[in-house]
């Protein structure tokens, strides 16, 4: 059942992601108009209108700001940290395989912040969770790239633990708790992108974790960016990222994988 849900989520998102859906609607509308069907103007206007709105409005910030503000980072860092859980999602697996060097994407702060925390808390256990979210068999696991990167950055192998089978946030939480067996009274930090933190915290709590949010990789600030400062491809990519989180929150809540529709501190 888990495999069916995983494949279905991948296929559905490929079609329903805002950019792809807008292009499909635009093409359907234009084709209908070319064939003389007047109703074609509506899907054409919807698709092209959405792309125009992304180009001229800060929709990317509007969709991400509530997510990023939901779990603020603690004002005071814990004096003692027993463990640090880092979620996958920052690794470019295919590029790493092709070039043989650890390649990171825009969520790279997940990896760098973990190293900084590990240096400030030499008592902490550093745990990375992430396999491969690719539908293609035999893809490189993110955990393998994380191991190589952190070893190169000087983290001792004995301090690190890797979970390499999970394909989504739900499996991250369940598999990692089974692997590390968190003891009562221990202080653990969860490191992931700020916009991904609400869903992550809801899932980890539901799985039985007692963990503190430590968000990174913010994409919004106190003020909205000046008009047209950010390029259209970046705006669209960030809008899709935020939209995916909102869809994921609703889907995980309906499946009983999170403790709330919109988890809060």
Walk me through the structure.
The chain has two domains: 2-68 and 231-253, no CATH class; 73-218, HUPs (Rossmann fold, 3-Layer(aba) Sandwich), CATH 3.40.50.620. It contains ten helices and five strands; from the N terminus they run ααααβααβαβαβαβα. The protein has helices at residues 2-16, 18-34, 41-56, 59-70, 93-99, 109-120, 142-152, 169-180, 197-207, 232-254; strands spanning 83-87, 125-129, 160-163, 188-193, 212-216. It has a five-stranded parallel sheet with strand order 3-2-1-4-5, with helices on both faces. The mean pLDDT is 88. InterPro entries: Cell_Envelope_Assoc, DUF218, Rossmann-like_a/b/a_fold. Keywords: Membrane, Transmembrane, Transmembrane helix. The chain crosses the membrane at residues 12-36, 42-63. Pfam families: DUF218.
**Mean residue pLDDT:** 88
Look up the CATH topology of the largest domain.
Rossmann fold
Tally of DSSP β-strands: 5
Biggest pleated-sheet summary: 5 strands, parallel
Structural class: alpha/beta
Number of structurally distinct domains: 2
Reported CATH architecture of the largest domain: 3-Layer(aba) Sandwich
Shape: elongated
Q: Could you state the order of secondary-structure elements as H and E? A: HHHHEHHEHEHEHEH
Query: What ranges have pLDDT less than 50 throughout 5 or more consecutive residues?
Result: none
Helix content: 40-55%
Q: In what range is the share of β-strand residues?
A: 5-15%
């Amino acid at each position: 059942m888990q495999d069916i849900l995983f494949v279905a989520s991948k296929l559905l998102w490929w079609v329903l992601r805002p950019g792809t859906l807008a292009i499909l609607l635009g093409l359907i509308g234009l084709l209908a108009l070319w064939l003389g069907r007047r109703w074609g103007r509506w899907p054409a206007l919807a698709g092209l209108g959405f792309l125009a709105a992304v180009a001229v409005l800060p929709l990317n910030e509007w969709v991400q700001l509530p997510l990023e503000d939901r779990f603020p980072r603690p004002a005071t860092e814990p004096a003692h940290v027993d463990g640090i859980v880092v979620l996958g999602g920052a690794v470019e697996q295919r590029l790493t395989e092709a070039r043989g060097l650890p390649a990171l994407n825009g969520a790279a702060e997940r990896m760098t912040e973990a190293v900084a925390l590990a240096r400030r808390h030499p008592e902490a256990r550093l745990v990375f969770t992430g396999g491969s979210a690719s539908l293609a068999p035999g893809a490189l696991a993110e955990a393998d790239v994380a191991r190589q990167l952190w070893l190169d950055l000087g983290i001792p192998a004995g301090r690190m633990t890797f979970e390499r089978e999970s394909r989504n946030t739900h499996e991250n939480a369940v598999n990692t708790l089974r692997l590390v067996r968190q003891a009562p009274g221990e202080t653990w930090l969860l490191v992931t992108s700020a916009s991904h933190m609400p869903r992550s915290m809801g899932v980890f709590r539901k799985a039985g974790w007692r963990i503190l949010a430590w968000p990174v990789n913010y994409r919004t600030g106190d003020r909205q960016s000046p008009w047209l400062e950010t390029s259209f491809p970046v705006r669209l990519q960030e809008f899709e990222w935020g939209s995916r989180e909102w869809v994921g929150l609703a889907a995980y809540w309906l499946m009983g994988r999170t403790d709330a529709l919109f988890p809060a501190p």
